[in-house]
Amino acid sequence: MSAETGSTGSAGSTGSTGSTEYWDAAAERFDDEPDHGLRNPGIRAAWDERLRSWLPGGASDVLDLGCGTGSLTLLAARQGHRVTAVDLSPRMVEQARRKLDGTGARVLEGDAAEPPVEAGQFDVVLVRHVLWTLRDPAEVLRHWARLLRPGGRMVLIEGRWGDISPVGIAADALAELAAPLAGHIRVEQLAHDPALWGKAVHDERYAAVVRFASV
Ligand SMILES: C[S@@+](CC[C@H](N)C(=O)[O-])C[C@H]1O[C@@H](n2cnc3c(N)ncnc32)[C@H](O)[C@@H]1O
């Protein structure tokens, strides 16, 4: 995620970050951003290692919401997880399907806030750089919790991008929203690791691993 992509100014006439038109228009060049396309082996390895530490050790059912072109989805699939990915933008879905071809992952077109999947079927809800764009994050988190099996977890990778008019959701605010739902929340700060971004960054970037009780 770049500050430019996230800024309301850059959305311009193509629409807001909540619109299909905006993301359809962004799809073709989306992977040019180092942390989006993960084309650089060092950046890909850095995300792969972090993702491995956030996901369960054995093969699990992972739901990647707002999957974009499927870069993170692909890492999860290659780590042996059974992945279902969902995105609102047909152009993103097209790219993700191409990227994930042959991995067994399925990619569905749909709204991350109400994904077209059954409740209670997933061990992990994985979301990177999407929650902050959704209209009612508290309600969305409640809905995502219902998609998990007992003992499941959410891996929420978010941030606050930009200096002058930052966009996104701060870790404290996200933890406050998740607290009434979850047994345990761990926030891992990510801004200090340039290997993830391909450059030094100074805004807030983090992963929140939100764990739910087993019963
Ligand atoms: C910043 S990109 C992140 C993509 C991917 N998670 C990643 O980290 O590479 C945001 C993605 O969320 C999708 N998106 C935005 N709002 C959505 C919604 N309500 N439902 C599903 N996807 C949505 C966009 O189409 C876009 O692909």
CATH superfamily: Vaccinia Virus protein VP39
Unreliable stretches (pLDDT < 50, length at least 5) are 2-14
**Proportion in β-strands:** 15-25%
* Helical content class: 25-40%
**Per CATH, which architecture?**
3-Layer(aba) Sandwich
Which structural class matches the secondary elements?
A: alpha/beta
Bound molecules: S-adenosylmethionine
Shape: globular
The count of strands amounts to: 8
Taken together, the total number of domains comes to 1
Report, as a whole number of angstroms, the end-to-end distance.
36 Å
Q: Which CATH top level class fits?
A: Alpha Beta
Main sheet record: 8 strands, mixed
Stated plainly, the CATH topology is called Rossmann fold
Instruction: Give the SSE order as H and E letters.
Output: HHHHHEHEHEEHEEHEHE
